[in-house]
């Protein structure tokens, strides 16, 4: 969930009303938002960097508000205020409109060359006219652009937005790609020109920009946008040129968005950007945006932004039944309108026509409309009721058996450990004196550390690591775990399956094979399996590299091998940083289901 | 136990006094070492209310080694005086005496002797008085007898300065008669024995009192892990509410069931390498219900079932990628698909099992945790039903403020209809982690103190039973 930080007093001024913190928290809740924190720049600095750094910082009250991930239209003070005013029926929902240049001239044009194909082949554009900034609105504008970059643009990997003072540049604009050595311009906040190659090394230490360098760093060509006089607008997705930067005096804005992939999501980004920026328009009640043309390398020409409205028709009954309320179609239409989904009753039965604005790409089904109706109705106003669904409960047999065995293993004096299902290759192979290929282990392709290389194929490493972390505890240590290991299995759709295992270890000054053997006898007694060769269980000397030679036996139940028990090999003990002899049992409990 | 004779001697002394008696005085009276008396006091205390004894400390004057020598043999000056015959003694000879130097100057200043330097044959010492009074020795002997109180402070300090006396702190007991005082000792039994029960002799015996302040011997038993105890309670709650347990024993899942079947688009950030553990071996799932897969592909890429869809190029290659499931909802999807293949009957399902996230680890996040999930499928379920069932669930948990620990919602038609579930069926679901409520319940701040091999086993040994609603 993105968080918007707004100055409380500015917010109240824009809303034309003052609230107590509690009242505003309540309003947020009603509107489906959450007032996450009440703070100030000073408080944040004190918390993050200590009292000294905070000296002189502003103590203006800030509200930090959590906004649902689908409501990009609420990501700035202006958008939030508009949303709340519509919700409180003080304003009408905005209706965005694309217009031709007011002077009757040609629209601005952005020409994409074929060189961009290898690095960042898509771009769209639009123009905003008659903007008036104040210091606060200017800051809000810059912050909003950053919020969009972080959220919908996925840290600029999908889309990068550039905004420019249109009066400092002249079209048509060219979007192309060049070798870094051939790009040279003065970037934002710098006093001289740099080549693109120099910029990349300059920004290596920039706390903000260094996070974006990887997006184009290893490309032979870098994307770049020029105006008709060769002035650099931006080098997306890294930095804009200084020449066209937005200032407090900017009146007209040229917006370009570049992207790696022109999916619906990316086109939507431009729409969102434009619609949000429109609220900085002087006459923002009009919600107008001036069109721009984009010419593709193949000669195709598109006009942006696409501000498509769509109408959905649904019945009041549908909403009532899904939410569990009983409202008239008229009142449901009113609820939806308050959520910026202009709605009216069509006159046929209880059908409601709902207009979906271009900013709400998340509304793709009637159920999304139902959700907004429920928010506007107020979740707290919906009467809770118990479904009449009659069912009989069943336990999963393997879990039922596990629950019963766990109880009795503690009664037998063993303590339950809870260890990780993921571990390193070393844990399940080298440390147990096994070859990784014989483990049938499932391997993880993208572990951040060695601790997550494989899914465990044995519970033993986890238990031994638990003992290693508890060497100061009085001896003997008697531990067990009944949980799943994961093994490759060709017969399953995903090529792997879980296997429920019981593993126990005894750690003391003497190996205590008889203790572990006694535990096996007890477990078999609990499972109602008698000692015996055919129908019962028995153990038989075996060689297993994890165990000390001559001190290991294989366990058979009803003639089938179910696991091993024995004294651990001294190398296993030392590889887990242990010092005492240790015996262990490891069995599959699934045969007993 | 100290020797009975000593105990009885002590008791007889105590009988004679009004009030009490100091153990130091007892030691002096009986002529034994004080430590033996201390042992006797402790033995008597163990017998019950025979005596009561209070520890005290006091300051006392004691002779130093040199002081004791003087108390026995006389002061140095007296010894010098006594060594001089009437005809006098050559000074150099006198100085050879052990007490010579100190004794000579002291005797001179006491004017007991005189030195004739001009005597022929060298300087010679003569007595000047007939008899002397050795006051130093007398005073020291008083102290030795325990009568230091008869000396004035000034005198004692003078002797202390001469290193003949020292002031020591003495620990002793102030002994008084107890409520069951007697001068004879009855031996107390420590424990009841089978013989006593058989013979009935326990009736005449006195038993040594127990120390109820001490801890008992730790029970010799195993212990369940606290998180697993909480899991048991959650299972119990679901079973009480009529929910059937889902088979979640499959950590490896395909992207298809983990994401695509849930109508999660293939570009969703949750499907990034940063958030999900993908599997390199076995890398791909190879078996899907084909016609269902086609319907999933269609609803993603083109829409349908009343939906606009996401309008992108859905790729089977993306759906095939194996991963460690990021939620148990992958299993719910499998179960709902299975349900849709039969004649529909309403179901309530639950599961509590491990899920995996390739996240940055911190005090509250690990790469794996347990997800608790509840699912209800029936005709005509409403948001009001979801809220009602959540209310019941969290009331059983004893959690009043539950908003922050979980997520809940209604499954989208784009997920349910391609499975083949009937149009009017709604599925409501909620989920939360097992670790979070456990940490809140037990006041644990760092998840590593609860889960994994680094936990302190003492915590496991000491953790109480889990009753969620109390």
TrEMBL record, chain A:
Gene3D superfamilies, A to Z: 3.30.56.10, Bira Bifunctional Protein, Domain 2 (3.30.930.10), Phenylalanyl-trna Synthetase, Chain B, domain 3 (3.50.40.10)
Spans traversing the lipid bilayer: 268-287
Cofactor: Mg(2+)
Record-linked SUPFAM superfamilies: Class II aaRS and biotin synthetases, PheT/TilS domain, Putative DNA-binding domain
EC assignment: 6.1.1.20
Compartments (UniProt record): Cytoplasm
GO cellular component: phenylalanine-tRNA ligase complex
Keywords, ordered alphabetically: Aminoacyl-tRNA synthetase, ATP-binding, Cytoplasm, Ligase, Magnesium, Membrane, Metal-binding, Nucleotide-binding, Protein biosynthesis, Transmembrane, Transmembrane helix
Limits of the B5 domain: 307-384
Gene Ontology biological process terms from the UniProt entry: phenylalanyl-tRNA aminoacylation
Pfam family, one: tRNA_synthFbeta
GO molecular function: ATP binding; magnesium ion binding; phenylalanine-tRNA ligase activity; RNA binding
Family statement: Belongs to the phenylalanyl-tRNA synthetase beta subunit family. Type 2 subfamily.
Protein name as it appears in the record: Phenylalanine--tRNA ligase beta subunit
Automatic annotation (TrEMBL), chain B:
Residue intervals of the Aminoacyl-transfer RNA synthetases class-II family profile domain: 229-470
Keyword ATP-binding listed: yes
Main location: cytoplasm
GO biological process, one term: phenylalanyl-tRNA aminoacylation
Compartment(s): Cytoplasm
Protein keywords: Acetylation, Aminoacyl-tRNA synthetase, ATP-binding, Cytoplasm, Ligase, Magnesium, Metal-binding, Nucleotide-binding, Phosphoprotein, Protein biosynthesis
Pfam family, one: PheRS_DBD1
GO molecular function: ATP binding; metal ion binding; phenylalanine-tRNA ligase activity; tRNA binding
Cellular component GO terms, alphabetical: cytosol; phenylalanine-tRNA ligase complex
PROSITE patterns listed in its UniProt record: AA_TRNA_LIGASE_II
Entry EC no(s): 6.1.1.20
UniProt similarity note: Belongs to the class-II aminoacyl-tRNA synthetase family. Phe-tRNA synthetase alpha subunit type 2 subfamily.
PANTHER family tied to this protein: PHENYLALANINE--TRNA LIGASE ALPHA SUBUNIT, PHENYLALANYL-TRNA SYNTHETASE
Quaternary assembly: Heterotetramer; dimer of two heterodimers formed by FARSA and FARSB.
Protein name as it appears in the record: Phenylalanine--tRNA ligase alpha subunit
């Amino acid at each position: 969930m993105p968080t918007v930080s707004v100055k409380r007093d500015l917010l109240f001024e824009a809303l034309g009303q003052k609230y107590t913190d509690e009242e505003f928290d309540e309003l947020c809740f009603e509107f489906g938002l959450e007032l996450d924190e009440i703070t100030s720049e000073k408080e944040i600095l004190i918390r993050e960097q200590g009292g000294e750094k905070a000296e002189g910082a502003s103590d203006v009250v800030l509200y930090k508000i959590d906004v649902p991930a689908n409501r990009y239209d609420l990501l700035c003070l202006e958008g939030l205020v508009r949303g709340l005013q519509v919700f409180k029926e003080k304003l009408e929902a905005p209706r965005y409109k694309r217009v031709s240049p007011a002077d009757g001239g040609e629209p601005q044009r952005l020409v994409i060359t074929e060189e961009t194909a290898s690095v960042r082949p898509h771009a769209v554009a639009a123009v905003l006219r008659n903007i008036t900034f104040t210091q606060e609105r200017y800051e809000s504008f810059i912050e909003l652009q950053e919020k969009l970059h972080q959220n919908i643009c996925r840290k600029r990997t999908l889309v990068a937005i550039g905004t420019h003072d249109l009066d400092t540049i002249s079209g048509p604009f060219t979007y192309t790609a060049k070798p870094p050595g051939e790009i040279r311009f003065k970037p934002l906040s710098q006093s001289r020109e740099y080549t693109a190659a120099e910029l990349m090394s300059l920004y290596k230490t920039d706390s903000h920009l260094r996070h974006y360098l990887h997006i184009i760093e290893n490309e032979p060509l870098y994307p770049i946008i020029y105006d008709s006089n060769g002035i650099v607008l931006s080098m997306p997705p890294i930095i804009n040129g200084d020449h066209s930067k937005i200032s407090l005096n900017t009146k007209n804005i040229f917006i370009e968005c570049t992207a790696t992939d022109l999916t619906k999501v990316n086109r939507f980004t431009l729409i969102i950007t434009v619609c949000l920026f429109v609220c900085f328009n002087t006459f923002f009640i009009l919600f107008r945006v001036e069109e721009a043309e984009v010419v593709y390398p193949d000669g195709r020409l598109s006009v942006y932004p696409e501000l498509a409205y769509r109408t959905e028709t649904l019945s009041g009954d549908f909403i009532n039944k899904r939410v569990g309320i009983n409202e008239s179609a008229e009142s449901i239409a009113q609820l939806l309108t308050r959520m910026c989904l202009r709605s009216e009753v069509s006159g046929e039965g209880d059908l409601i026509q709902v207009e979906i604005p271009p900013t709400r790409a998340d509304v793709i089904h009637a159920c999304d409309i139902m959700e907004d109706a429920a928010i506007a109705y107020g979740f707290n106003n919906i009467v809770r009721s118990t479904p009449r669904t009659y069912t009989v409960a069943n336990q999963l047999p393997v879990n039922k058996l596990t629950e019963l065995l766990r109880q009795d293993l503690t009664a037998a004096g063993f303590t339950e450990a809870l260890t990780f299902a993921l571990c390193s290759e070393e844990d399940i192979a080298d440390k147990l004196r096994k070859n990784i290929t014989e483990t049938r282990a499932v391997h993880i392709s993208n572990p951040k550390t060695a601790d997550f290389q494989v899914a465990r194929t044995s519970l033993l490493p986890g238990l031994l690591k638990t003992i290693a972390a508890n060497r100061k505890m009085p001896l003997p240590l008697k531990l067990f775990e009944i949980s799943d290991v994961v093994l490759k299995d060709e017969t399953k759709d995903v090529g792997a399956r879980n296997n429920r295992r019981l593993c126990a270890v005894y750690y003391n000054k003497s190996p205590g094979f008889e203790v572990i053997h006694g535990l096996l006898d007890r477990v078999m007694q609990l499972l109602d399996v008698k000692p015996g060769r055919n129908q019962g269980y028995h153990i038989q000397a075996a060689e297993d590299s994890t165990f000390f030679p001559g001190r290991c036996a294989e366990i058979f139940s009803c003639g089938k091998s179910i696991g091993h028990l024995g004294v651990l090999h001294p190398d296993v003990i030392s590889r887990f940083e242990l010092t005492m002899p240790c015996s262990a049992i490891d069995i599959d409990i699934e045969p007993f289901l | 136990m100290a020797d009975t004779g000593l105990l009885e001697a002590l008791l007889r002394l105590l009988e004679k006094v009004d009030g009490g008696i100091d153990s130091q005085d007892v030691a002096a009276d009986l002529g034994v070492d004080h430590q033996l008396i201390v042992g006797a006091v402790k033995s008597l205390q163990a017998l019950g209310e025979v005596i009561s004894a209070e520890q005290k400390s006091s300051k006392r004057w004691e002779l130093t080694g040199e002081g004791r020598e003087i108390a026995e043999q006389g002061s140095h000056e007296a010894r010098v005086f006594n060594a001089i015959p009437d005809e006098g003694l050559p000074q150099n000879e006198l100085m050879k005496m052990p007490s010579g130097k100190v004794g000579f100057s002291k005797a001179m200043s006491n004017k007991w002797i005189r030195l004739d330097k001009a005597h022929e044959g060298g300087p010679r010492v003569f007595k000047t008085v007939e008899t002397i009074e050795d006051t130093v020795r007398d005073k020291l002997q008083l102290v030795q007898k325990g009568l230091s109180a008869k000396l004035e402070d000034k005198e004692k300090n003078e002797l202390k300065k001469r290193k003949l006396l020292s002031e020591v702190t003495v620990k002793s007991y102030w002994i008084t008669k107890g409520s069951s005082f007697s001068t004879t000792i009855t031996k107390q039994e420590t424990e009841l024995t089978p013989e006593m029960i058989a013979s009935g002799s326990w009736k005449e015996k006195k038993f040594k009192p127990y120390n109820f302040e001490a801890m008992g011997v730790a029970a010799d038993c195993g212990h369940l892990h606290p998180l697993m105890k909480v899991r048991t309670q959650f299972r119990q709650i679901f079973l009480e509410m009529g929910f059937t347990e889902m088979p979640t024993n499959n950590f490896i899942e395909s992207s298809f069931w983990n994401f695509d079947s849930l109508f999660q688009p293939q570009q969703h950030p949750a499907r990034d390498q940063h958030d999900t553990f993908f599997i390199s071996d076995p890398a791909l799932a190879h078996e899907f219900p084909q016609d269902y897969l086609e319907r999933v592909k269609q609803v993603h890429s083109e829409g349908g079932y009343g939906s606009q869809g996401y309008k992108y190029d859905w790729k089977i290659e993306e759906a095939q990628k194996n991963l460690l499931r990021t939620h148990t909802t992958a299993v719910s999807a499998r179960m709902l698909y299975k349900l849709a293949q039969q004649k529909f009957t309403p179901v309530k399902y639950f599961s509590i099992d491990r899920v995996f996230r390739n996240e940055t680890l911190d005090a509250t996040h690990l790469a794996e945790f347990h997800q608790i999930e509840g699912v209800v499928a029936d005709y005509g379920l409403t948001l009001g039903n979801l809220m009602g069932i959540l209310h019941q669930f969290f009331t059983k948990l004893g959690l009043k403020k539950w908003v922050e620990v979980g997520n809940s919602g209604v499954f989208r038609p784009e997920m349910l209809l391609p499975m083949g579930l009937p149009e009017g069926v709604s599925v409501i679901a909620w989920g939360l982690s097992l670790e979070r409520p456990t940490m809140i319940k037990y006041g644990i701040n760092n998840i590593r103190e609860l889960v994994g091999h680094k936990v302190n086993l003492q915590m496991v040994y000491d953790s109480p039973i889990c009753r969620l609603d109390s």
